[in-house]
Design goal:
The protein is an all-alpha fold. It has a domain of about 130 residues: Tetracycline Repressor, domain 2 (Orthogonal Bundle). It is built from ten helices and no strands. α1 crosses α2, α5 packs parallel to α9 and α9 runs antiparallel to α10. It is globular. Keywords: DNA-binding, Transcription, Transcription regulation. This is HTH tetR-type domain-containing protein. One of its GO terms (molecular function) is DNA binding. InterPro entries: Homeodomain-like_sf (IPR009057), HTH_TetR (IPR001647), MT1864/Rv1816-like_C (IPR025996), Tet_transcr_reg_TetR-rel_C_sf (IPR036271).
Length: about 200
Amino acid sequence: MVRAGLTAERVTVAGAELADEIGLDQVTMARVARRLGVKDASLYGHVRNLEDLRGRIALLAADEKTTAIAEATAGLARKDALVAYANAWRRYAREHPGRYTATQVPSRIDPELAAKATGPRRAVELTYGMLRGYGLAEPDLTDAVRLLRSTFHGYVSLEAADGFGADRSPQHSWERALDALHVLLENWPPAPEGDPR
C-alpha cells in the first residue's frame, strides 16, 4: 500500500537533497526512507529501485541546471553568453554537488521518463544556440560542445576535489580559461579535408 502524500517527486527530491549532503554514491533507499519518515518498502510504490531513483535525480538536476543556464544567458551572445553559461554551470555544480554528479554518471533512466524530460533536450538546444553565435556549424558544433563540456566538467570536478594546489586563485584561472575559450571559438580551425561527420 502506498503511503498518503508520498509521491515519486517527493522521493526524488529527498534523494537529491541527500545526494547534495552526503554524496550520490552514499544515497540508499533506506536513507531516503529514513529522511521521509517511512519504511523502505513504502518507496517502492513510487520508484522501482535505487537505479531508478538515481535516474530520476539526474533528470531533476538536468532540468534545474538547464533552467539556471537559460536564465543566466537570456538575451546574451558570444562571450557574454559563454561566460554566463559557464558561471551558471559552475555555480550549480558547487551548490548541488550530488545532483550535479547524477547528471554526469550514466544510469538506466526509464525510457518513458526520459522521453518526457525537457532538461537534457533543452540543454542541447541552449548549448548549440550559444555556439551558433560564434558562426559554428556541424561537425564543428559537436566538437565545440564536447570541448566545453569536458572543460567545465573537468574544472568543477578538480575544484570540488581541491585539485588546484598552486597559489593562484582558481577564480582567476577560471576567468582566464573562459577568455581562452572565447578566443578559440572566435578562431575555430577549419576541419581538415575529408573530416568525417
